[in-house]
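Format is sequence with structure; example below:
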Amino acid sequence: MSEAITDFGRALKILTEGRVDFVLIGGVAAWLHGSARATVDLDLVYARDRENLRRIAEALAPHHPYLRGAPPGLPFVFDERTLRNGLNFTLSTDFGPLDLLGEVAGGGGYRDLLPVSDEIRAFGVQCRRVRLESLIQLKRAAGRPKDLEAIAELQALLEERNKSDG
């Protein structure tokens, strides 16, 4: 399993072909809004309904999802039941690091993020990403140093976009 960098195109293709309902957040969403910052993992908020949990488990199973940072050999079964009983999962997969988030600080769950997301074509697939204003809000709520550092750039992108729109 690769820990270097996620193959974003492969990951998104796997998820979209598996008909998984999700919204992109984090560094990939920032990059798709014009950020120059590099990111190594894919962060997404996923729908927690039973059918979507089944689709996630089926789509990811062939790619050996495992708890990132957990000792090798730790018993871990990635299936619908695990997803239902958990909420946020930081995973290693054959295509790289993946953060599956049932809820995020400042944004809530999938249904909460739908109205503040848009559809975009990225890495050859149609998917949803959180809008720039909401991404800034999520980064503020996360409060990690790397998120706080990213806010200035995202705010500048928002101001530039608002100037060109107005």
